[in-house]
Every structure is written in C-alpha cells, then in structure tokens.
Specification:
globular, 4-stranded antiparallel beta sheet, 51% strand, 7-stranded mixed beta sheet, 11 strands, mainly beta
Length: 119
C-alpha cells in the first residue's frame, strides 16, 4: 500500500483545513486508516482512525472528523477550530487489522504534510 498525504498549509487559529490521503495498492476497504501527527521535539501521536467506526484522540474530539471514500481509495481529515497546538506534521497510515492508537502497529505510512496554525 502506498499512501500520499496532501492538504496541509498555514492557517490562523480558529480556521479549518482538510487533509487527504490517497492510497494505492491493495484492497483499501479492508484497512484501518489512521492519522497521526508529530510536532517538533515531540513523539508521534495518534489523532484519529477509521475502518467501519471512528476513533479520536481526546485533544481533537469534536473539532476533527475522519472519513473515507472507499471507491476513491481516499481518507480525509477535516480539521475545524484549529489551535496553535495542532501545529505538526500530519501522517496518514494504514494497517490490515483492527483499530489501534499505537503508531508502531501501522505497517504503511505516507510522507507527511505540514500543518501550521498561527495565533
């Protein structure tokens, strides 16, 4: 599975961005798709994941929405009410199993897209 993330950019606090992750390769619908992020000097952290249900980190619940279009082999992360602490490189990832919040459980990774939220 090859993953290509896009949609990052610079936005003011309170603004919105929509990230996309296009997948190619094997059967997309069978994979758990996740979004993780890594801020400078910090560990990579779980943001959200989706297969048939969705899971979110507490820090983004109510502000971010993960969705997928299996026909288009694409997963999305709609980010609203962005805060400066959301600034990070965002990565999409895939694993062929059940949900996990652990980055080490994901077999496939995209290249990352930078999200910067100014105050």
């Amino acid at each position: 599975v090859q993953l290509q993330a896009s949609g990052g950019g610079l936005v003011q606090a309170g603004g919105s961005l929509r990230l996309s992750c296009a997948a190619s390769g094997r059967t997309f619908s069978g994979y758990v798709m996740g979004w993780f992020r890594q801020a400078p000097g910090k560990d990579r952290e779980f943001v959200a994941s989706i297969k048939w249900s969705t899971y979110y980190a507490d820090s983004v619940k109510g502000r971010f929405t993960i969705s997928r279009d299996n026909a288009a082999n694409t997963v999305f992360l709609q980010m609203n009410s962005l805060k400066p602490e959301d600034t990070a490189v965002y990565y999409c990832a895939a694993r062929y199993s059940s949900h996990s919040r652990r980055s080490a459980d994901y077999e496939y990774w995209g290249q990352g897209t930078q999200v910067t939220v100014s105050s």
